[in-house]
Write a structure and sequence with these properties.
With 451 residues, this protein is α/β, with parallel strands linked by helices. It has three domains: 90 residues, 3-Layer(aba) Sandwich (Rossmann fold); 204 residues, Mur-like, catalytic domain (UDP-N-acetylmuramoyl-L-alanine:D-glutamate ligase, 3-Layer(aba) Sandwich), CATH 3.40.1190; 134 residues, Protein-Tyrosine Phosphatase, Chain A. The protein is built from 16 helices and 20 strands. Helix 5 packs across helix 11, helix 5 packs across helix 12 and helix 15 packs across helix 16. The protein is globular and about 70 Å long. It comes from Heyndrickxia ginsengihumi. This is UDP-N-acetylmuramoylalanine--D-glutamate ligase. Its EC number is 6.3.2.9. Cell wall formation. Catalyzes the addition of glutamate to the nucleotide precursor UDP-N-acetylmuramoyl-L-alanine (UMA).
């Protein structure tokens, strides 16, 4: 960890806890700052805040009092999930108090090179693929962090010069950077998302493009060349542009060409050897291969991972094959776009398990992707809406059940050898489950019970 004096004796407010807030508060305390932590959860229900209090850090819990801004803070480190419309945050902006997220702290203290990954879809798969390829190449020594679950500012404290920090980054995190500069930046794709937070697609896109705003000509920006508006968005970047495409051959990038993955004209692996399913995952693979080659990974390490990597848990994850039926867990598909991507990954007859929290939208956008769906098993608040969509798509077998656990044996009874049984809910889980992970784990357990 680099020794920096930037925060010594400075009054800093850490707003919002969870893992990132706890790590940021502890780190700033270690760096000599006068830290105050403010979290909405009451102290008696807040073990994280209690732990920080024991470290000698000032803690204010139970609300976000606007009066805090009168204490003369020189910086706010904000939990990414807290919107900029929050009165305390808005008040800080009016007073010109700088606001950052903890990934900025991670960059300032780390000794390692950073590979940063963002985009609307595919971030976690791409981050994990890069990590696995680096790990398979014995000359590289990767660490994984960021929005994928391991707090970047915590990992950064032990990262060494000869290591590589691979960080998954959300638009929320990227809004709070000032000097953050990855050596390799990746934008997987860009679609309309998180408008409740950003307001417009333009603001969302601007936040994503922050990943390259501090890069120089010594750095690399890997970007989806099939989205011309994305290429146009990052035209301001000073980094070396490394495009990738599933549709055209790119001499200075990564391509799917004549069935092969190529990088700058070099053939790496044939598509048929790759076990991760789905055209959408080809984009993630191309971005990952580009990052690996730029970091000097051997082709042998790339091939080893791509011929064995079956996916990240809850993201088009292969679970089991039972009596000729293949089961896939895509519980992370909490919106229509993600469900559509999963459905496109399979050409065989498919039984789709879907449903969940009703956010007020319809599902007719799914209809073009339901061509191979022979039956739908529906659950949760959106079951009636999804049933309407299924009927419009001409699907004859539509069954409603109470939950995911009950959907699995019903789907198995309806299926035949060669079928795919896919959990891809197209909805958030919160009507029945605390998280998409819990929903996915219940699906996995129900599949294994069939054995």
């Amino acid at each position: 960890m680099k020794t920096i004096n930037d925060y010594q004796h400075k009054k800093i407010l850490v707003l919002g806890l969870a893992k990132s807030g706890v790590s940021a508060a502890s780190l700033l305390h270690k760096l000599g700052a006068f830290v105050t932590v403010n979290d909405f959860k009451p102290l008696e229900e807040n073990p994280d805040a209690q732990g920080l209090l024991e470290q000698g850090i000032k803690v204010i819990c139970g609300s976000h009092p606007i009066e805090l801004l009168d204490e003369g803070f020189e910086l706010i480190v904000k939990n990414p999930g807290i919107p900029y419309t929050n009165p305390l945050v808005a008040g800080a902006l009016e007073r010109n108090i700088p606001i950052i997220t903890e990934v900025e702290l991670a960059y300032q203290i780390t000794e390692s090179e950073i590979v940063g990954i963002t985009g609307t879809n595919g971030k976690t798969t791409t981050t994990t693929l890069i990590y696995e390829i680096f790990k398979a190449d014995k000359r590289l020594d990767p660490l994984i962090a960021g929005n994928i679950g391991k707090v970047a500012s915590k990992v950064a404290q032990t990262a060494k010069k000869d290591q590589q920090m691979i960080i998954e980054l959300s638009s929320f995190q990227l809004m709070g950077i000032r000097t953050f500069r990855p050596h390799i930046a990746i934008i997987t794709n860009l679609y309309e998302a998180h408008l409740d937070y950003h307001g417009t697609k333009q603001e969302y896109a601007k936040a994503k493009s922050n990943i390259t705003k501090n890069q120089t000509e010594d750095d690399f920006l890997i970007v989806n060349n099939d989205q011309k508006e994305l290429v146009e968005l990052v035209r301001f970047s000073k980094a070396k542009l490394i495009p990738f495409s599933t549709k055209e051959y790119l001499e200075n990038g990564c391509s799917l060409y004549d069935g092969y993955i190529t990088f700058r004209g070099e053939t790496i692996i044939h598509r048929n050897e790759i076990v991760l399913p789905g055209d959408h995952n080809l984009e993630n693979i191309l971005a990952s291969v580009a990052a690996a080659k730029l970091m000097g990974a051997e082709n042998e390490a790339i091939r080893k991972v791509l011929t064995t990597f079956t996916g990240v848990k809850h993201r088009t994850q292969f679970v089991a094959e039972i009596d000729g039926r293949k089961f896939y867990n895509d519980s992370k598909a909490t919106n229509i776009l993600a469900c559509t991507s999963a459905l496109k990954a399979f050409n065989q007859p498919t039984i789709l398990l879907a449903g969940g929290l009703d956010r007020g939208n319809g599902f007719d956008e799914l209809i073009p992707s339901l061509t191979n769906v022979k039956a739908m098993i529906l659950f949760g608040q959106t079951a009636p809406k999804l049933e309407e969509t299924a009927k419009k798509a001409g699907i004859e077998t539509i069954i409603r059940v109470d939950n995911v656990e009950k959907a699995v044996p019903v789907a198995f009874e309806l299926s035949e050898p060669g079928d795919c049984i896919l959990l891809s809910p197209a909805c958030a889980s919160w009507d029945q489950y605390k998280s998409f992970e819990i929903r996915g784990d219940i699906f996995i357990n129900a599949v294994h019970k069939l054995k």
